[in-house]
Amino acid sequence: MPATRPLKRRRAVIPLQGDGPDYLSRDETLRVLGVKAATLYTYVSRGLVKSVAIKGSKSRQFLRRDVENLLARSLAHSGVAARAEGTMRWGEPIFSTQITEITPDGPRYRGLSAIELSRAGTSFEALANFLWSGAMPDDDMRWSYRAVTVDPDKVVDALGVPLPVNDVLKMFSLLVLASGLPEAGLTEFSDGRTALTAQQIIQVLAGSCGYLQTPHRFVPPRDGESIAATVARALGAEGAAQTELLINAALVLCADLELAPGTFAARVAASAGSDLYACVAGGISAHAGELTGRGSDRAEDLLINSDRTTLKRRLEMLKVSGRKLFGFNHPYFPSGDPRAYLLIDLARRIKPLPHRAKEALWFLDEAREQCEAYPGMAVGLVILCLALGLPRRSAIAIWSVSRAAGQIAHALEQRVQGFVIRPRARYTSPV
Length: 431
Prior knowledge:
Elements: E1 23-24, H1 26-33, H2 37-45, E2 51-53, E3 60-63, H3 64-76, H4 80-86, E4 100-103, E5 106-109, E6 112-113, H5 114-119, H6 124-133, H7 152-159, H8 168-179, H9 184-187, H10 194-208, H11 227-234, H12 241-254, H13 261-271, H14 276-286, H15 293-305, H16 308-321, H17 338-348, H18 355-371, H19 377-388, H20 394-417
Antiparallel strand pairs: 1-3, 2-3, 4-5, 5-6
Helix pairs in contact: 3-4, 6-20, 8-10, 8-14, 10-11, 10-20, 11-12, 12-19, 12-20, 13-14, 13-20, 14-20, 15-19, 16-18, 17-19, 18-19, 19-20
């Protein structure tokens, strides 16, 4: 890629907000980068910033993601402090890890492609063991069920909230944290029960999927039952072999994506000496924000609750205003997440395909063709759950079960590395 000319600070740089438009106007782009128009068009000619014509106008818009990347690269040249700050914003790596590498073809778990592992039918339990220990079992694993001391149903009943809850992540986080009481978490490491604790956390999350459908109760895993089968049974799809296989494929694909916010939070907690229950609960809570988990819920609401007329209207809004649509054009996979494409392809093969799934697939095709909107993993999960006829919020629930494996792997790795993650902040005087 051509070298980037350092950006001249003609005026104060205006920070970009995380949930803004996908495209910026010419004036906004010049103001953010702090450059002259001639310099901007030099960047465009070099392919550093993509521009698109505005329908019915001679003006052009500029791809927000490219502007952010260009700004981050400029900051990286301006000194150690700015470079350190830039690493926290989709920047350069800050940790060494042997768990996951992000590639254009999707994540690789300890050197093995997540997509190929999923296609090969690797069980989620075997994958979890591989992430935690680096050893891939010769055959599919199954875990014995260890009941938790605190009854999940009593915890949920004590909350007094109507079921099914809309905020699945907060409830799941609470149930994981409660599972470490009264003393399980305090003795997890000293008693040498790390592996059993890790398995129990995932089993609790799998059984908690039962709160998404009637009778809204915890579904205890059965001895020797796969996690995918437990999730399917908890979501009301017991006995459907195809559903179990597809859920297992999704669990394998979602298990880790390096230092996502939830995983980073779990790693920070581990660095402070927290037990695995607290690490995973913290990781799930960190994913419950508007720009992550709740954003996934918004993507689901769009695809589940919208008829063809509403979907067409949303497409027109995307074309005219360039507003960002959550779940599409992930910075790591600007042409679409390969994992999402696999799930969507699997969903298309389900027969008969529910009407809502057909409408959602139509929207994906149109969004790609008309708006260059390419699906991320959140959308892939939603499409699969629609095709399987699973209850609302199943996508984020499956994500929680799966990602716990990666969060635990990072927590364990952080323990071995043995340092407290405690970055410094650069104080700036208030104006």
